[in-house]
Every structure is written in C-alpha cells, then in structure tokens.
Design a protein that fits this description.
The chain is α/β, with parallel strands linked by helices and 492 residues long. It binds 7-thionicotinamide-adenine-dinucleotide phosphate (TAP). 7-thionicotinamide-adenine-dinucleotide phosphate binds next to α8 and α9. Keywords: Oxidoreductase. This is Aldehyde dehydrogenase.
C-alpha cells in the first residue's frame, strides 16, 4: 500500500476496506471486492465492495418505494436537502479533491478549482429550479377546461465514466432529484471513491432512505442488470459511444427513455486573425486538462496557413513546458492517465496515426523523469497530418491534439463538420461578428468563441450525432427533462 500524505479524514474514509456500497440508507458489502488503484503509482489505495445483479435489483426496488414519498415531497423540502448537500460538499472540499486526485490522477488544484465546487453549484442551481418550477400549467383552451401537470418519472438510473466522477454525477443526479425522482447510481469501477463519499454526505444531509443509492459494480454485470431493469423509468448514461449504443438498444427494448452523453472529437478553428498567444494558451490548457480525458476537449486543431508555423512553434513550447506530476503535488499541471489500459490505448493510437502518415511535432513518449516511471504518464502530444488520418477523426481520449491546415473559412467548416461526432467546437478570431457566424455553422451541441471548455449553469451543454442524444445537462431544459407531462382535461 502506498504511503500517502493525505488529509486524516481522507485516510479514515479509505481505511474501512472494502468500502461498502449505499443502498436504501444502508452500507452493504457483497463479498466481492476490487482494488482501487492510484494511477500515479499503480498501487492500491483501498478496496471497494462490488455490487452484484441482485444488489442492483434490490436498489431499484427500494428506490421505487422511496419514490412514493420523495416524488410527492414539497419542492421546498427537496430544495433544502439539495442545498444542505451542496454545503456539505463545500465543507469537505479538501477530502473530495484528494479522493478525485488519487482516483482519477488529476491535479488536486484542478479538483479544488473545478470538479468539486462546480459540482456543489449544480446541487444549488437545481435546488432553486425545484422551487421556481411551475408544476401545473393552465392551458386556457376553448373546448376543454384543461391543464398540464408535470410530475417526476420515478426511478432514474445513472451509469457514469471515470474521467469526472464527481462533477458528472452532480450534473446528472441534481436535476433528477430536484424534480422528484429517486436515483440509483453506478459509478465507473476505476473511480468510485468520490461518489461513495457523496453517498456519505447525502446520508448526513438527511435524504430519506432509498432516494440516493450508490452501487459500484462491474459494467457488464451489475451495470447490465441496472440498465436492463424494466422498472427504471429513465436511464442516463455518460461514457463511450460504443457502450452508449448498447444501452440505447437495451433501453429501447424496454421502452425506457435513455439520455446518452457520449464521446467527441472537438474541432478548434484558429483563424488568421486569431490572437495566437491566447489561442495557444487556451487550447494547450484544454487538451491537458485532466490529461486530455475530457469528452468535449478540442483534439482537432484547424490552423490557418498564414499563422500555422507561428502557432505550431508556440504550441510546441507550451506543450513542452507542461509540468507532469502526481496530482497531489502542488507543481503538477498534468497528472497521469487514469488507467494503464487507457495509456496503452493512447500510445497505440499515436503509433497508428504515424502509420497513417502523421508526424509527431512533440510528445508521444513517457516522461524521462524517473520519479514518474511507476505512473501512467505520457507527455502532451502534437500530431500533424491529413484529415483522413483515422486519429484526426476518432476520439483518442488523452493529451493528444491533431494539427491540420486550412486556407478558406467556409471550406474548413465543411471539413470540421464531416466528423460524425457533435459535442463541442470552438472558433478563435478577434473578429467577434465573424466568429459568431462560424460558431453557428459548426455542427455540435456547443460552439465556443475564443475559449474551449466553457461551463456555466443555465448554459445548456448538449450533444448531437455520435456524441449523444437525450437532452444534455446544466440548464433549465435539463430539469424539465426529468418531469413528465400529464394532461388533465374536462369537457366544458
Ligand atoms: P465506458 O467504457 O463507456 O464506461 C462508462 C461506464 O459504463 C462505466 O461505469 C462502465 O462500467 C459502464 N458500462 C460498461 N459496460 C456496461 C454495460 N454493458 N452496461 C452498463 N454499464 C456498462 O466509458 P469510459 O471509458 O469510462 O469513459 C470515457 C468515455 O466517456 C469517452 O468516450 C468520453 O468522451 C465519454 N464521456 C462523455 C461525456 C459527455 S457529458 N458527453 C462526459 C465524460 C465522458 P465499468 O467501469 O465497470 O466498466
């Protein structure tokens, strides 16, 4: 076991091995457990109990019972509990940031700067919407005396990936709970710690038993049992396009609506009139954030011919100056890749990109620093090549950007839109009016200008095409998506 310099409360949480899962207000163990591995060392930091299909089945049963009262709870009560949860998250920010850092590998500063506070804000944002919502709307029609009532669906199931466990969980469950649904959550097997800690905070906040259930388990076993349970009324999945397609199929057979937030291959269009230094800084930050394991990051950079050489030279310097290190060290700007398997995949993609004619401008190797040799590190990588290179098209999910040249702005929009994903793109230009026109033309859920990875509650974050369907997150529309509409009419 690695010796870690951690907050004593973090250590105390990890000590109770294997960490139990949380179902119907009880902490349970299944008899099967797995190690939770720190990607900076590839050593176990704790073990977790793995829920089995019967545990998932039981959790759905309990969530169904809990829904009977939670779904009818006054919005002000739901608001108060969600706000309490947000305040407990803020109280324990240091512990949560440490858990996220040792589990995912990300710099602790990243977790305290974004993952944890932004998750807390999600519970507050949707708590407010819960009380502001109009649950009954008079229709004022001629033939009928009618109104629409908006009601929660029932049990909502959530399956999450390993890259932003705490934030994505908040984006998913906060609107569902605010609207009055109960939730059964399966976090990724590799990164369950912060979600289990959330369950502890939910218990302390006083959520009624069965409202929030957190059960780590294998995707193909426990996850499969959850997604195929026909009693769930809503399915929300965040993860790869391949697993999303499977979940969509399974839910389709049960006629359960599935909200799918999937992968991406974001384009950045860097125009000839862009502020080159700002674009280099913004895009280097975007592709090295969470070691590039960000669904909406910009991993295809289309650079205008006039500034290509200057931009690439500056980007190379910026990439080579990124400090790699264990997330818990203060100097680290980029941590290790979350799993050995994902690191191997990234190297494989880079090799295949080269086999298809791409050249490495910088990076693409393990760092020379001996102290990092046990972790899953890779140096930030710039590839240059052609549009038809498979890795200018497909998601790599690592700190790898593909450089492409362009001359004509309309032509580059067409080239960028040929990609089958549709998550997030950005335009970089000092001509804001022109940038807006180009931003409108890019096909995706999100078009950002002179920035990449832009989030704010109220700003809808969605997707189209191979990046998902089912509504997106972070806005009023997300909250409304967790309410079903029922017409009530009497003939006059
Ligand atoms: P996946 O391999 O798809 O795994 C995601 C989750 O699905 C894990 O909890 C996994 O469980 C579970 N799972 C696997 N097979 C399952 C099955 N048959 N039934 C039910 N659950 C199953 O994705 P990942 O590698 O963790 O995450 C990376 C991907 O997520 C990338 O493509 C990234 O772009 C995407 N992503 C998208 C977004 C948004 S908002 N669009 C945000 C973050 C990430 P195990 O952990 O046990 O395998």
């Amino acid at each position: 076991m690695t010796q870690l310099t951690l907050n004593p409360n973090t250590l105390a949480f990890l000590e109770n091995k294997p960490l139990a899962f949380f179902s119907n207000g009880e902490w349970l163990r299944s008899g099967q457990s797995i190690d939770v591995v720190d990607p900076a060392t590839n050593q176990a930091v704790t073990q977790i109990a793995m829920a089995q299909p019967q545990d998932m089945n039981d959790a759905v049963s309990h969530a169904e019972v809990a829904f009977k009262s939670w779904g009818a709870t006054a919005p002000a009560k739901r608001q108060a509990l969600l706000q309490k949860l947000a305040s407990l998250i803020r109280r324990d920010e240091d512990i949560l940031a440490e858990l996220e850092s040792i589990d995912v590998g990300k710099p602790k500063a990243e977790a305290t700067g974004f993952d944890v506070p932004f998750a807390a804000d999600s519970y507050d944002y949707f708590a407010t919407l819960a009380v502001e919502a109009q649950y009954e709307v008079e229709l004022g029609l001629k033939v009928t005396d009618s109104h629409t009532v908006k009601k929660p669906y029932g049990v909502a199931a959530f399956v999450f990936p390993w890259n932003f466990p705490f934030t994505l969980c908040a984006w998913g469950i906060a609107p569902a709970l605010a609207a009055g649904n109960t939730v059964v959550i399966k976090p990724a097997s590799e990164t369950p710690l912060s979600t289990l800690y959330l369950a502890k905070l939910a218990e302390e906040a006083g959520f009624p038993k069965g409202v929030i259930n957190v059960l780590p388990g294998s995707g193909s076993v426990a996850g499969e049992a959850l997604i195929s349970d026909s009693r769930i009324k809503l399915m929300s999945f965040t993860g790869s396009t391949a697993v999303g397609r499977h979940i969509g199929e399974v839910c389709g057979r049960n006629l359960v609506p599935a909200k799918l937030e999937l992968g991406g291959k974001g384009a950045a269009i860097i125009c000839s009139d862009a502020d080159v230094d700002a674009a280099v800084e913004g895009l280097t930050g975007a592709i090295t954030l969470n070691a590039g394991q960000v669904c909406c990051t910009a991993s295809r950079w289309y650079i205008h011919d006039d500034i290509y050489d200057e931009f690439v030279a500056k980007a190379k310097v910026a990439f080579e100056s990124i400090v790699l290190g264990r997330g818990l060290t203060e100097s680290a700007q980029m941590g290790p890749i979350c799993t050995e398997k994902q690191l191997a995949k990234i190297f494989e993609c880079i090799g295949d990109a080269q086999a298809h004619g791409a050249t490495i401008v910088t990076g693409g190797v393990r760092p020379s620093d001996e102290s990092l040799s046990d972790g899953n590190y890779i140096t930030p990588t710039l590839l240059a090549g052609a549009d038809d290179n498979p890795w200018a098209i497909e998601e790599i999910f690592g700190p790898v950007s593909f450089l492409l040249k362009f001359n004509d702005e309309q032509e580059v929009i067409e080239r960028a839109n040929r990609n089958l994903y549709g998550l997030a793109n950005s335009v970089w230009s000092q001509d804001l009016a022109k940038a807006k026109v180009l931003a409108h033309q890019l096909v995706g859920g999100n078009s950002w200008i002179n920035a990449h990875n832009v989030f704010e509650y109220g700003l809808h974050y969605g997707a189209c095409n191979k990046s998902g369907c089912g509504g997106g997150v972070n806005s009023k529309a997300t909250f409304e998506g967790y309410l079903r509409h029922q017409s009530v009419a009497a003939v006059r």
